[in-house]
Amino acid sequence: MPGTETGIVDVAIVGSGPAGLSAAAHAAAKGLSHVLLEKTDHLSDTIFKYQKGKHVMATPAHLVLRSDLDFDAGKREAILETWDRQIAENKVEVMLDAEVSSITGHAGDFTLTLKRGVTVRAKAVILAIGTQGNPNLVRCPVTQGTIVQYQLDDPGEYVDEHITVIGAGDAGIENAMGLAADPQQNNTVTIVNRSADFATAKEANVQALLAMESEGRIIVRRETTAASIGDGQIVFDTRDGQVTVPCNRVIARMGSAPPRAFVEGIGAEFEERDGKRVIKAGTGVTFTSADRVAYPVLSPRFESSVPGIYVIGALAGYPLIKHCMNQGYDVIEFLSGNDGLKPADEPILEEKFAGLPGNKSVDEWLELFGRNVIILQELSALQLRELMLDSRARAFGKGEVIFERNAPGSSMFAIAQGSVAVEVNPADPSITVPIEEGSIFGEVGLISGRRRGATIRAAEPTVVLEFSRNAALKLLATAPSAARAVNRISIERQLLQMFGSGLTPSDLAEIIETAVVEDKRAGEVVIAEGDDDKDVFVIRRGSMIVEKDIGGNPVFLSYLPAGSYFGEMAVIDGSRRTATVKAAIKSQVVRFPGEAFVKLLERKPKLREKALADMAGRREVNAFIESRKDSFGDAADYYSQTAKFLVDNGIGEATDVLLIDQTLCVGCDNCEKACADSHDGLSRLDREAGKTYAHLHVPTSCRHCEHPHCMADCPPNAIKRGPDGEVFIDETCIGCGNCQRNCPYGVIRMDAKPPKKPGLLSWLMLGIGPGPGEASYAWRKKKAEQSGKETPKVAIKCDMCSGIEGGPACVRACPTGAAIRVGPEKFLAVSQADRDD
């Protein structure tokens, strides 16, 4: 055995990634007998598998590096050369082609059996094996022979290909940028992100990707998933329906999971159960939860539930290279008896917690946070430390305001100690609803970007954790237990708000326990007319269209926006489904069994009355349609075309849309002029542009979408949501143009703020200035040249005249009443009235 006379080493390190290399180098420096086991024929397989020429980042920049190996940001090749050289110089004992198949024994005498039959004995074992060997696979159908790969070695190998990269974490982004870096390769590169945010990627990577997108070098598809792959093409499920594009190759970089079976089997006892050999409860390495991507339970010294087995690096839930290398150094210090060593991030966390009461240590605060806060209870200690580096811990005295109604904010809060009171009635602050210790608040701002919906005060001395938007989204994306907890709380609050009728959280407990969150692609049927299922649905995000079959044709009945519920009719009266409900756009619904809903109605008479009233209204619509079925040919076609027009033009996801009645419009352009005069001389609408159906015209003007496309990837977070639902851009806009590119309706323009115009009287009496409305480009250019200053361009869009008395100027300026602003639920009524006229 290398470096020993007894055949047993002080420590065996499994895996030679950054964590394992750092541990082995420090073991050599401390004089510990050791062996570094690497299953491949080279060191640092993690970095080795990075694409050629990749720039490796050394983040976080403020974290000190503890290691006997050097590391700084640089090219992959230079870093590997440095580590190979220093490992040799430090006389680290290395065994290559040494894949471990099993680890048995106990602290002080472990036996590691290699696949090639050799055994290694060690007093302690450090697992630094990472997770890259266990990638998450694509789940959609893949035609045989189609190229789907889970690694990119050399981007320069691929020329003249349509390549799709699935996954928008750091690995996916770097692969996509590498494939698109050289224009002479002539690749068409598309990267697919299942959400609107790049929650798990480094900010520098995101900004570089967006820059390449703005230059037209990469296609970025947000809120998109792969539906099928094969035959030289890939089918995407997008927010607005399915799209098919050419595809020669798919590179899937969707993360990876720990090699759980191998790790759990270390130190385990086995027993027979139902004819299978399974791990006996309470033995083996324990994980934080049953989730596939969960991490092992570790002590502050990185020791697992099996004494003598230590876990560091990505397998511990800390994938950044500097973190991994620090852990490698620290674990050797612990094994050497340095129990007083604190983690490298300790000073940072000490500073963050300095203002909290009670004089607790960092470990004590972290233990309290993990114990008390529901969404953190299944996180490992290392995950919790990483989360807190990007978060704030704040203390409030009784009665202190945490945030006020209508304040901007997209962070999420968790109550670590104490409780808060939510002021639900703006006219009477004494009317409050409590939120108890361990729960969260502010999740609406996180999910939708809306302004704060209520003022929240500390009901007693309270400690809260504030997670930035990026930190919260990353938490939800990487910790399934946290995502489930947030889902449960947000569903409960949505149902309480929607049903009202004096319900309490305990009333909804059974429904919440059985609730399932489901994503629905655009056009997907949720309920089919004639079916006999009995589930009830709540629209969490997106919108639904309700149709009824009349003479073989689908007749549009109604539109259901987010916050509506449906499916209760068949549950209450036991009938079959009387209509079809399908997603207007990519949507998310909460499904729960009708049986639980019926029990709730039986316990709550007021809620039953409300449900029966809603059902009666829907029955009336159905009865009206049925009564007209013999003469419904033209009407059915009209309703169906109305529904199609509504969806195709984004009205189905709007909260406010400008319509112009063509029978009343005289083409005076007062609407455009009033818009310009109300907004620094630049109009936010184009009356003539846009689509028309029947006599209703939808000009180019913001729809103020329920979940705005433009909010995605706004670097300064300059796009906000006002108290009335208006989406607006504030003064922090940097003119990057991301919002303009992301808006599918062409309602955002990039333009320089024009010089101040002379007043109306100056124009009327002296001919000075350009006159009412938007100044011509020639006038603006001349004024800019005269000032000698070049004004930078910023994003400009309709803000519903927020803050302007009287409401939207376009509507007030219309002399004939042709211009109106409506929500999508009123669009059909307006169009029907127009038809009846």
From TrEMBL:
One example GO MF annotation: 4 iron, 4 sulfur cluster binding
Cited Pfam families: cNMP_binding, Fer4_11, Pyr_redox_3
Ranges of residues in domain 4Fe-4S ferredoxin-type: 656-688, 693-724, 725-753, 792-825
Residue ranges constituting the Cyclic nucleotide-binding domain according to the UniProt record: 375-476, 499-618
EC annotation from Swiss-Prot or TrEMBL: 1.-.-.-
TM regions (residue ranges): none
Keyword terms, alphabetized: 4Fe-4S, Electron transport, Iron, Iron-sulfur, Metal-binding, Oxidoreductase, Transport
Keyword Transmembrane helix: no
PANTHER family for this protein: DIMETHYLSULFOXIDE REDUCTASE CHAIN B, OXIDOREDUCTASE
Protein name: Hydrogenase-4 component A
Organism annotation: Tsuneonella dongtanensis
Primary gene name: hyfA
